[in-house]
Design goal:
The protein has 502 residues and is mainly β. Among the domains are: 17-74, no CATH class; 218-295, Immunoglobulin-like (Sandwich), CATH 2.60.40; 301-386, Immunoglobulin-like; 391-500, Immunoglobulin-like (Sandwich). It is built from three helices and 33 strands. Strands 4-10-9-6-7 form a five-stranded mixed β-sheet, with no helix packed on it. A five-stranded mixed β-sheet has the order 11-17-16-13-14, with no helix packed on it. Strand 1 (88-90) and strand 2 (93-95) form a beta hairpin. The longest helix has 24 residues, at 35-58. It is elongated. Residues 10-19 have a biased composition (Low complexity). Residues 20-32 have a biased composition (Basic residues). Residues 1-32, 67-86, 134-158 are annotated as: Disordered.
Amino acid sequence: MQTLKRRRAAPATARTNPAGRRKKTLKRRKPKISPRRLLLAAAAAFLLLMVGRSVLPALGIEAPGLPKFGSEPTPTTPQTKAPPPPTIDLNGVLVHGGDTPMITLNPGLVRLGGSVTVQGNGFDQGSMVDVFLGPQSDGAAPKPKKGKSTASAADQPKQVGTAKAGKYGIFTLNFTFPNKMTEPVLEVTAQARGSDKVAKADAAVAQGAGQAALSAVVGKPGDTINLTAKGFSPGEQLNVYWGRINGTPNLTLTADEDGSVGKTPIKVGVTAVGQTSLVVVGKTSGAAASAPFQVLRLYPSIKLAPYAVKATQKISFSGSGFAPGERVLVRLNSAGGQPVMAVVTDGAGGFKGAGLVMPYQLKGSQSLVFIGEQSRAAVSSGFTILPFTPQARTNAYGGLPGTMVNFYATQFAPNEAVHVYVRTAKGAKPQLVSAFRVDQKGTARAVGQYTIPGDTEDTVVFELHGQRSDAVAKVNFKVDKSGGPVDIPAPKPYTVPKGLEN
């Protein structure tokens, strides 16, 4: 009972001492900073930082001084190289020779946001090839500017992929075309890492598209389908467009007295591959109707004949699978630049009977590239330039000093000049001693003239050089021992007549 009384009396003592109670109360409420509280505060700060870096930018709110989530340092703007300039004259046009990298695009007429396939060849086997997309260049390599660049990001090429060149230096790469752009044509550049091998090709962007209905919903350019339209003014002119609503119409029709067109056969026009529209616009009423249509890719093919020729010979080609009535531009070893010729397809998208005469400067493997001017459908086909392999003989296999020699030759280039050089001793410098011209078949008989000098022993080697084909034929002439000195005047230096220079 005494203990209980003492415990109950304690509060009364506390009440008699207010100052002491406040002191005890303040001491009891003083906050304590524990490791757990520090850990919770750090986690809250981290979560706040993540929200600022990810959620706020996603909502369109930029936090000043706060980097975006997942952001990386701004990469240096890629500087794409320029292909070497063309140097060989083919049909009056400067073109690239063999062993030149080349790319083609399929499709070449692309849709914003669509898929594009880049096919390349002529690169080093196993090399890594970076592919860039950017505005068209003037053919010169971009020069880096000193100081801060003032060019916008849209004006700079952007890397869209990397591929590894396989056997024979061939690669294939797919990339998605941008959804927005300010130029109708962009340039695709394939550039090998650590190498000067680079190739370019242009990607043209199709104009806008609409929607509406036809007798078929799938087809390729040139296919025939039936169009039915109504709701226009009686007798007015109807302009028909594929994948656009302005410019020159693909076709013009006339509405009947009811303002309709019934089951009229039309051909699928050239437009971007994929989902597009046929649009009909009334010239008087301004009324418009559209029909959705799925445009299939064109798969052109080329047949060359023959696949191996010599210089001055003609290689013929025929093609099919292009758009009807379009020009097909023909280029050598490149998908860009000035075409060496153009052929027009027929109503079925084909052509035949075209050809090119090969110049002397081309050697080895070559490629002809065929690109539809409207459809941008592209295909290439390879062929080989064979070397000339001439043969030559003298009028005798051997003889004594003083023997007069002339020459017989075959399989040189047609009508070319042949210069004759002689070596009278091993390691001696060849000397020009005669010249002649072969006929249309590359043949000559009993031409040129040379007298074996009196001090010549053993073997004389004649080298016959074709001045256009750059081909060489060699003849060994055995010189018999004369048994003593032979008094024959030394030949005078030979000068090639003007008519036998090439």
